[in-house]
Amino acid sequence: VFLKSCNNGFFEHNHHGHHDHHDGGKIDSAKQLIGEALRERVENIDSESCEPGEEDTFFVADLGEVYRQHLRWKRNLPRVKPFYAVKCNPDPKLLELLAALGTGFDCASKAEIEQVLGLGVDPSRIIYAQPCKTNSYVRYVASQGVRQMTFDNADELRKIARLFPGAELFLRILTDDSSSLCRLSLKFGASLDSTDSLLALARELGLNVVGVSFHVGSGASDPGAFLKAVQDAHVVFQQAASHGFCLKTLDVGGGFCSDASFEEMAGVLGAALDEYFPARSGINLIAEPGRYFASSAFTLACNIIARRTIEDVSAASYMVYVNDGLYGNFSSIMFDHQHPVAKVLRSGARTLYNTPAAEATDSVDGIEYSIWGPTCDGIDRITESIRFSVLLDVGDWLYFEDMGAYTKCSATTFNGFTNDHEVIYVCSEPGAKALLGLP
Ligand code: PLP
């Protein structure tokens, strides 16, 4: 469902701390569009009479936000072409927009590659960026003409020599990922001690090494990690030359956040690239951002399905149970070390989205809640303690912003709950609408 823009004056303005990089007016109208979609979807659902599933959790995705992130990338890292990391959120409309914007795609499996090829994307715009690949998938990509792939060890090189000797190989190197949310270097990446012998082996096997890749860890927070990784990559480019390889591409991986830290990261990375891989070197620069594009575009709405009152001498507090949790779209709490913050979408018959009353309050006068998921497991808790000025009850709705990255894709069906929730699409940018052929 695509919604048109709205302006009914219903939603009050709000401040939006982490969106300072954007034009404020645009954000206000984007919020209005998202708010309208949320309100339209929930206002007629009566938990006393609705059918099972009608009150299910759902997303509102603003594709305009993806478009703004694309422009922001081009402003900050104009030389680096993004290959969106599909694993982060394989939403079909998100992929369609990115394909139309001309990005490449980082895929980790046959299914992801199939999905991207299905959009009509040329195989040269795909990198199979999984250093430890499934044999049959390697044969599959060979048959589809997807040539770019990463490796970081000798066994993988021998596998590729057997199954796809014509592949275009990126040597993935180890990074210092200690400042990131999700560390990857325990599992992947060749240390600088081993790169020389790997390049020698690739030579001996007659393989085609075309570049170097790295990943500083997902949710990285130390820009110094990018500088060090670029320096190390530069060393490996020289090693490769001494083995007779003429490397063409540096892949700086993912790890970028969508908050205000992006400009700082991009500043340090851009300066390092200008120093070690200047434009005159003719080296192509690519990246594999996931979270950066997906996170802020998706807002999640959950219904309060049950409430337990905790009587206390001073004041009552409440445990509220919503119909999504750690085994669902809040899998990001477990796997991605996130702390999603609840806001009140609808309480009683009032829609509070993007108003001061929707926000948690620090005031001790606020009513205290803990927020729990719907499964029978005690770890399924979204928030230990939060206060709102409004009294919440069964049938009310909460919403959570920035829920686009590593959420739906890692949700399970534990306890028989669906993990395939509806996504309502809106688009707050005319440029993105035009690309998608929308009115
Ligand atoms: N590339 C690779 C190889 C990854 O493993 C990941 C995430 O795990 C990404 C890219 C995307 O990372 P991010 O979402 O932090 O940009």
In short:
With about 450 residues, the chain is α/β, with parallel strands linked by helices. It has 12 helices and 17 strands.
Q: How would you describe this protein?
A:
There is one protein chain. With 439 residues, this protein is an alpha/beta fold. The chain has 2 domains: 183 residues, Lyase, Ornithine Decarboxylase, Chain A, domain 1, CATH 2.40.37; 232 residues, TIM Barrel, CATH 3.20.20.10. The chain has 12 helices and 17 strands. The strands form 2 sheets. Strands 1, 10, 11, 12, 13, 14, 15, 16 and 17 form a 9-stranded mixed β-sheet that branches. Helix 6 links the parallel strand 5 and strand 6. Helix 2 packs parallel to helix 3 and helix 7 runs parallel beside helix 8.
- What's the CATH architecture name of the largest domain? Alpha-Beta Barrel
Helix share bin = 25-40%
Q: In terms of quaternary structure, what is this?
A: single chain
* N/C terminus separation: 12 Å
Q: Give the SSE order as H and E letters.
A: HEHEHEHEHEHEHEHEHEHEEHEEEEEEH
Number of strands: 17
What keyword list fits this structure?
439 residues; alpha/beta; Lyase, Ornithine Decarboxylase, Chain A, domain 1; TIM Barrel; 8-stranded parallel β-barrel
